[in-house]
Every structure is written in structure tokens, then in C-alpha cells.
Write a structure and sequence with these properties.
- The protein is mostly helical.
- The protein folds into two domains: 30 residues, no CATH class; 112 residues, no CATH class.
- Helices cover 74% and strands 0% of the residues.
- Helix 4 runs parallel beside helix 7.
Length: 153
């Protein structure tokens, strides 16, 4: 399954970068977030804070830290464009809700699996869910008022 996940992820990125229909919707002027400023700090943090110092554990921790901030370029782009179409708004909301449901899963597993504490994934998941909080607020507010989703400047 991991090979299928990695393969489909690579295919999606390739499609977004090279398919002309998708490339026509990309606006380079609004995409000002420099994602490489996220990768290096996440890697350094993985080298410093990890469960066990070996290659696989450091890479696993790095992937967790990078997953936390992976949504930031999209959120910043949405903040710049302000007007968000329904498909994108629903996608971001459901992505954040998916992460928030992980918290419920962790609470359940804590009480059913010998009270194991997993600090790195828990803190990472809480931080990631907190990053969505502002978007959740405006998404629910626009849904409640039956308006088009708009983010403030």
C-alpha cells in the first residue's frame, strides 16, 4: 500500500506540474510562499527531536514534521487570492477535518492500548490541526450564512 500511495502521490505532482489544463489555472504571481524554508527546519528538528537516533526513525520524524507544515503554502495562497471556489474550500476543510479526527482516534487508542503516550505524533497533529483553525472559522461562518467563502486580508 505504501508503494501505491507513493506512486499515486508522484503521479499527482507530475500531473499538476505538466498537464496543460492544470498549468493554466496556476498563477505564479500569487504563489509567493517559499516552501524550501519549511524543509530544512523540519529536517533539523527531526535530527534534534526523534524517538530513536537511526535513519528510519529520523526520516519518519522528518515526515511527521513536514506533514504539519505542508498545508501552509496552500493556506497562504488562499489568503492571497481571498475568493475560494467551493471545490477548493471543501477539499481544505475535509483535509483539516481528517486531521482533527485523528485526535479522536488517538484519545480512543490511548484508553484502549495500555495508555501509550506518543508525544511526537500527538504534538505534530495538534499543531497541524491548529493551523487549520482560522480556515475552519471562515469556512463554517460562510457555510452558516450561505455565502461564498472569502478569507480576510
Amino acid at each position: 500500500m505504501k508503494l501505491v500511495f507513493i506512486g499515486t502521490s508522484i503521479a499527482i505532482v507530475w500531473y499538476m506540474r505538466h498537464h496543460k489544463v492544470v498549468k493554466q489555472t496556476y498563477n505564479n504571481d500569487q504563489d509567493t510562499f517559499r516552501h524550501y524554508f519549511l524543509v530544512l527546519p523540519c529536517f533539523v528538528l527531526a535530527l534534534l527531536i526523534h524517538p530513536v537516533f537511526n535513519v528510519m526513525e529520523v526520516l519518519w520524524t522528518f515526515s511527521l514534521y513536514l506533514e504539519v507544515v505542508a498545508i501552509l503554502p496552500q493556506l497562504v495562497l488562499l489568503q492571497h487570492s481571498r475568493n475560494i471556489d467551493n471545490l477548493t474550500g471543501n477539499y481544505i476543510f475535509l483535509l483539516g477535518a481528517y486531521r482533527a479526527l485523528y485526535i479522536i482516534n488517538w484519545i480512543y487508542r490511548f484508553f484502549t492500548e495500555n495508555h501509550q503516550v506518543r508525544w511526537i505524533p500527538w504534538v505534530s497533529g495538534l499543531v497541524q490541526t491548529a493551523l487549520y483553525a482560522d480556515f475552519f472559522y471562515y469556512y463554517i461562518k460562510s457555510w452558516k450564512n450561505n455565502e461564498k467563502l472569502k478569507l480576510p486580508e
